[in-house]
Amino acid sequence: MDSSGANKTCCESIRDFFTSAKFLIYMGHALSTWGDRMWNFAVAVFLVELYGNSLLLTAVYGLVVAGSVLLLGAIIGDWVDRNPRLKVAQTSLLVQNSCVIVCGILLMVVFQFKEQLVELYNGWILTTCYILVITIANIANLASTATSITIQRDWVVVVAGQDSSKLADMNATVRIIDQLTNILAPMLVGQIMAFGSHFIGCGFIAGWNLCSMCLEYALLWKVYQKTPALAMKAGQKEQQQELKQLSVPKDSDNGQSPEESSQPLMDEAPAVDKPDTPQQNGFCYQVTEPLRTLKSGWVAYYNQNIFFAGMSLAFLYMTVLGFDCITTGYAYTQGLNGSVLSLLMGASAVSGICGTVAFTWVRKKCGLIRTGFISGVAQLSCLMLCVVSVFSPGSPFDLSVSPFQDLYTHLIGEKTLPEADHSLTSVLTGGNATTAAPAAEQPTLQSYMSVSLLFAGVIAARVGLWSFDLTVTQLIQENVIESERGVINGVQNSMNYLLDLLHFIMVILAPNPEAFGLLVVISVTFVAMGHIMYFRFAFKSLGNRLFLCCSPEQKVETVDPPSLPTTV
């Protein structure tokens, strides 16, 4: 009897976990990020293929996406704050997936009838299709930003309740899902396009998003039903109507799981509705409302006590030391082939997962704020290898070559790149990136020393990077009042995109491989500046106790204003 009872209890616990709001959020996030990663990878390939192996359309798309989030991040966050949680999640989900489906179908038409479209109206129909694809894809990205803010920055907090350890575990699990999908999803769609065609790849992504949208919609509704606290949002008139929609028993003693009875991380007094003044009903007032929202969002972000922590995270985006097209292009110029780079990307993903696991362990031992300080020290220490690589044997770094020479010669048109040109500009503009080093010069072990040190530093630094990212994410989650979560996270996304945009501008200004070492030094400098800002925040919060490791029972980490919750 005891054994059967124990088995029954074990089965029930497994069943409860797989039907819990926490697991359903993981499932929905996995489906969402899988579709996002496939689309983000494929759209760049599609645009390159459509424009004759040039990165022009891809660069335009990247600029539009970055500029849109930079300008509209605060407005998107404010919309998330002003509307009921379920409405925001469902609307952003439907808009995002519908836009990707429409883009997929439009790209299928372009791939199938490209020759005919080129001849129509001197190619203006094809140009219109390019504009439509970039515009609709940008709308999908904005909707994805809204989904990320509402699920990862708000729903996760409410489902975790007031349990900081549970919130840290959920954040870490979500980040592990991000890491895995970032590697596996592009591999899948890449194989489909390689063995099939771009037409089939577009159709597969459109079909995936259609099926995924239905499943995610159902999962969101189940999470909403299981967590009544999601229906209670500060200042929302629809609060009572939402509560009536939930078919949850009033009796809380019927085996209800902890997250089903969770409360919001912080309570607020309901907002008092005030009648609109005649000025507020005017046309000019309504037209300028987005500008006022944008201004108030940035002001609110600046007034947050976690302002320096958020800025420190944004500064980490001003770097060429990541596995993006910039670093990949530089690696090709140094003789690394695609096979080696894929292995390095896999190692980077494993390193990132180790960082998320380390975050949960260090946070329990040293507290949240100290975890960010330790992660920053670890990341900077690893990046010193990248600085050393600049001056190591095999490095192309040469201060005698003007960083702007390649840009200048392209602008005046005096330089014609040879077929086997290995400059960074050639790689980034659709040149022959897959060729190895010139045949006349056999690469030696010494010639790979610099690039080996560079990637060793980049991969090792991912442990500290992702741990630091999780730290700042949880600080924002725990220390921003509920009514401002959306707008603060929207501004944070804008700051991230702004620094990311600046790093691309930096590469455009100095694109030749001889100047890449200078970009490395600038990148490490910005990372150091970011961690100095975090140190200022941490020292202001903890004082001298920042350097004292203490047990979880002893640590008291507060962020100043008494109206904000304390960080455990």
UniProtKB/TrEMBL annotation:
The membrane spanning regions, by residue number, are 55-80, 92-111, 123-143, 306-332, 338-361, 373-392, 453-473, 516-535
Listed A to Z, the keywords are: Cell membrane, Ion transport, Iron, Membrane, Metal-binding, Transmembrane, Transmembrane helix, Transport
What CDD domains does its record include?
MFS_SLC40A1_like
| Region annotation (Disordered) ranges | 242-272
| Localization terms from the record | Basolateral cell membrane; Membrane
Gene Ontology MF term list: iron ion transmembrane transporter activity; metal ion binding; peptide hormone binding
| Composition bias type Polar residues, residue spans | 254-264
Annotated membrane topology is:
Multi-pass membrane protein
Recorded GO CC terms? basolateral plasma membrane
Superkingdom of the source species: Eukaryota
Q: Its family?
A: Belongs to the ferroportin (FP) (TC 2.A.100) family. SLC40A subfamily.
Against PANTHER family, the record matches this protein to:
SOLUTE CARRIER FAMILY 40 MEMBER (PTHR11660), SOLUTE CARRIER FAMILY 40 MEMBER 1 (PTHR11660:SF47)
> Which purpose does this protein serve, as stated in its record?
May be involved in iron transport and iron homeostasis.
Name by which UniProt lists this protein: Solute carrier family 40 member
**Where does this protein come from, organism-wise?**
Echeneis naucrates (Live sharksucker)
